[in-house]
Amino acid sequence: MKHTAKIIPCYAADSAGACSALYELGGMTVVHDASGCNSTFATFDEPRWWDQQSMTYISALTELDAILGNDEKLIADVTAAAADQNPKFIAVCGSPMPMMIGVDFDAVAFEIEQRTGIRTFALHTNGMHSYPEGASEALRCIAEEYVRPAETKIPNGVNLLGMTPLDFDNLHTAASIREWLAENGFETVACFAMGDALETLANAANASVSLVLSQSGLAAAEYMHEAFGIPYVCGVPYGEAFSALLADTLRNAAADGTCAFPCTERGQAGQTVTVIGEAVSAGTIAAALGLTGYAANVICPLPHDKRLLTAGDSDAFAEDEIAGALAEIQPETVIADPLYRFILPNAAKLIGLPHTAFSGRCYDKIIPDLTGNRFDAWYKEML
Fold first, then answer.
1. Can you give the pTM of this predicted structure?
2. I need a surface site. Which of 14, 166, 203, 281 has the fewest CB within 10 A?
3. Residue 260: HSE in the Cβ half-sphere, 13 Å Cα cutoff
4. Can you name the residues that pair with 210 across neighbouring β-strands?
5. Residue 269 backbone dihedrals phi, psi, to 5 degrees
6. 149-262, superfamily in CATH?
7. What is the pLDDT of residues 193-238, one digit of tens each?
8. Gap between the Cα atoms of 26 and 378, Å rounded
9. Cis geometry, peptide bond prior to residue 193 (ω within 30 degrees of 0)
10. What is d(CA 286, CA 296) in angstroms, rounded to the nearest whole number?
11. Which H or E run contains 192?
């Protein structure tokens, strides 16, 4: 049977991506699903759950309510909870069972907003897709709903887009990227969505350029490019050489308004390295290695914009396809979450780089911050 995960796990679902993207913004996020399903998100996908409160709830959908199509229970429960919690907004999203019975989330959101007077929007997750789709829709929705036209443009102002613990579980990374921007003469305007409140995100149009750190931030970047003329650059400041290139690319984009994808540059000579993971992060690692003498490529099993992959990369997404791609490439080294070790070619060396959206909290104590020259020290030790 094709497309069956027999050995490796699947990635966090789109509903987890939506919850993660909205976690710090003061809204109420309600996933329409059975009681207990919130524990999966809280236990495996969200490290902030242990020390930072958020209004993330499960509707406790029952079998009888699903059979009878009792949407009134969901609407009434959310309305009552909103009266008690007074959130800044309400987001309602789905899971597999509501998809199967055809719940109209747009209509549910409209009715909740009419009753509460609180801005309510539907996120069209169904639990059948991976986290970038849910996080991407959520962050774009926040940009569309709350970012105001610029009052004054900040010449060196940068938005950080796509920052969630699903891709950056080392919570020091967000601060490290802000520090890197400051060291290179930039000012962080807004971070979607770690470390900044909703009121701060509303000022994002004041930025001159956006730095897209993951696929989850690309839709919001495209919206702000269309609505406010803010260009964007895709990449993460990993490695001294790539970080310098990324800083120059940000300056050029701010000056001429051109979007750029430096994370797609690949090395063509040296030891062959395959990086498995999210398109922007994995592509950045491959590009950073290429600048230091490695022939690197990417396998991206997650939803991604086609512009984030280039010649020699693979979009294999199922276990059998990933194993087949690795068998064809025959890399000397693979950089991937440690759980991928079970499907690697026998001769390949694995360098474990834990990914929370894939292995949950299994390796949370060893996830590195690779910002700047920390990446160089890491890969020299590992390779």
1. 0.94
2. 203
3. 23
4. 159, 232
5. -135, 155
6. Nitrogenase molybdenum iron protein domain (3.40.50.1980)
7. 999 999 999 999 999 999 999 999 999 999 999 999 999 999 999 9
8. 36
9. yes
10. 5
11. strand 187-192
Q: Where are the alpha helices (DSSP H) in 257-351?
A: 279-290, 319-329
**Residue among 31, 19, 29 nearest 126 (CA):** 31
Q: How far apart are CA 379 and CA 263, in angstroms?
A: 17
**Domains 14-129 and 149-262 fall in the same CATH topology:** yes
Task: Collect the ranges in the chain with pLDDT lower than 70.
Answer: 1-3, 37
The H-assigned helical ranges of the chain are 14-22, 38-40, 63-68, 71-85, 96-101, 105-116, 131-146, 172-183, 198-201, 218-228, 240-256, 279-290, 319-329, 356-359, 373-382
In degrees and rounded to multiples of 5, residue 256 shows phi and psi of -110, 0
Q: Which residue has the tokens 């406010």?
A: 228
- DSSP SS3 for 210: strand
CATH code for the structural domain at 14-129: 3.40.50.1980
pLDDT digits (tens, 9 = 90+) for 226-283: 999 999 999 999 999 999 999 999 999 999 999 999 999 988 877 899 999 999 999 9
Cα distances (angstroms) measured from residue 105 to each of 27, 33, 91, 122, 236 = 17, 13, 10, 6, 35
In DSSP terms, which residues pair with 13 in a beta bridge?
130
Angstrom distance (rounded) from CA 224 to CA 149: 10
> Tokens 């280039």 — which residue?
310
C-alpha closest to that of 55 among 21, 17, 90, 12: 90
- Determine phi and psi for 294, rounding to 5 degrees: -120, 150
DSSP 360: T
Q: Which amino acid is at 234?
A: C
Question: How do strand 28-31 and strand 271-276 relate by DSSP bridges?
Answer: unpaired
For residue 20, the number of C-alpha atoms closer than 13 Å in the C-beta half-sphere is 33
Domain definitions of the chain by residue range:
14-129, 149-262, 263-382
CA distance 334 to 332: 7
User: What CATH number was assigned to the domain covering residues 263-382?
Assistant: 3.40.50
Nearest to 284 by CA among 227, 335, 344: 335
**Which of 175, 299, 194, 193 is CA-nearest to residue 237?**
175
